[in-house]
Structures are given as C-alpha cells and as structure tokens.
Specification:
Shape: globular
Largest sheet: 5 strands, parallel
Distance between the termini: 11 Å
Number of helices: 6
Radius of gyration: 16 Å
Bound molecules: flavin mononucleotide
Number of strands: 5
Strand order of the largest sheet: 2-1-3-4-5
Helix content: 40-55%
Length: about 190
C-alpha cells in the first residue's frame, strides 16, 4: 500500500513538510509506503473550465505543459492521498488550489476515479485561517467519494518560520494520531 502527499508550500522543507513527515512516520511503522511530492517551484496552472476532461475521459487534464498530470498519475496509483498546505490568506496556496480544481475535475469526469481511496488534509499556520484551508482540501476528498479518517483535533500545526511546528507538541500529536488512523483505515479497506 502507498500514500502520496502533496506539499503545496513554497518552502520545500518548511512546517508543512515537517507535519506531513510526522504522519508518514506512523504510516511507515505500519508498513505503508510513502512519497512526498513538492509543488514548490512547479508550474501549476489553474483550471481553464474547458471541460475537455468530461469529453476525453482518459484520466488526464488537457493542459499537458505543467506538473498537474504527473500529480494525477501519482494519485491514481496511490491507496491514500494527503493534501498538505500552509495557510496563505486564510486558505490553501495557489499551487494546491490548482491541483484541487484540476485533479478534482478530472476525477469527477472519470467516474469518481478516486472513490474509496483514503484522504487526509494537513495544514501549517501561523495564527488564523487554518480551518478554512483544511475545509478547502477536505472538499476535494468528499466530492470524490473518498474515506477521510479523523484525528484528536483538526489536522493543524502552528508555526511561522521553518521548523517552528516542532515546538507545537499538540500539533505533532495530532499528526501522529492521524497517521495511526489513516494506516488503520487503509488496512481495513485493503484486506
Ligand atoms: C503569502 C502568505 C500568506 C500567509 N497567510 C497566513 C494567514 O492567513 N494566516 C496565518 O496564520 N499565517 C499565514 N501565513 C504564514 C504561514 O501559514 C506559516 O508561516 C506556515 O507555517 C508556512 O508553512 P511552510 O513553512 O510549510 O511554508 C502566510 C504566509 C505567506 C507566505
């Protein structure tokens, strides 16, 4: 089994990546493979609403000169998908939103192709707006008929500068529990 995580931060090794790795630690302990995909520096165009994915139905976006189809391929192959983002103006990063809109539309156009995969959202935040970002990513999972495990709190870690989330004990504990619950659900679904 495999879980792929997409880090929407402009900082590859910042707080969002640290939180994802805390989830990964528990998945790895359960024998689940993990892959962290960094969106930083990648070209990620927004959805152009051409609706070609609803005509072609080939599990691809018609825009082929950026990174989104690579991400979609990784989502298709994985059993679990983590969407992780810093909070930017009380929402996800631009790159993460482009991924949500395009991968989400392609999935809907292809007979709910992520149906019953396991999904989890992870958010880094300095102070405010994390729940809005968390909701934005959860919308992707729920509209795609995915299974979303919970944790002991919403999946949020607090910090401003890279590494600050390491001081947020409750945030890290939330990621640990999320990893345990994600592994548990994956094993139940893939018996
Ligand atoms: C463009 C931009 C907008 C931000 N907006 C918010 C915000 O609305 N609320 C907040 O608490 N922090 C905000 N922050 C701070 C980041 O969410 C915070 O530093 C986070 O830990 C960054 O995660 P990273 O290290 O993975 O990039 C913003 C940072 C940037 C660069």
């Amino acid at each position: 089994m495999k879980v792929v995580a997409f880090n929407g931060s402009a900082r590859k090794d910042g707080n969002t990546a640290i939180l994802v790795n805390a989830v990964f630690d528990e998945l790895k302990k359960a024998g689940i493979k993990t892959e962290l995909v960094q969106l930083a520096g990648k070209k990620m165009h927004g959805c152009t609403a051409c609706a070609k994915c609803w005509e072609e139905k080939d599990q691809r976006c018609v825009i082929t000169n950026d990174f989104v189809n690579d991400c979609i391929d990784k989502m298709v192959e994985a059993d679990g998908i983590i969407l992780a983002s810093p909070t930017y103006f009380a929402d996800v990063s631009t790159e993460m939103k482009a991924l949500i809109d395009r991968a989400g539309f392609v999935a809907m156009a292809n007979d709910a192709m992520f149906r019953r995969k396991v999904g989890a959202a992870v958010v880094a935040v300095r102070r405010g707006g994390a729940i809005h970002a968390f909701d934005t990513m959860n919308h992707f999972f729920f509209i795609n008929q995915m299974v979303v495990p919970g944790s002991s709190y919403w999946n949020v870690g607090l910090g401003l500068l890279p590494g600050d989330v390491k001081k947020d004990d409750e945030g890290l504990a939330t990621m640990k529990t999320l990893g345990e619950n994600m592994a548990w659900v994956l094993k139940k679904l893939n018996k």
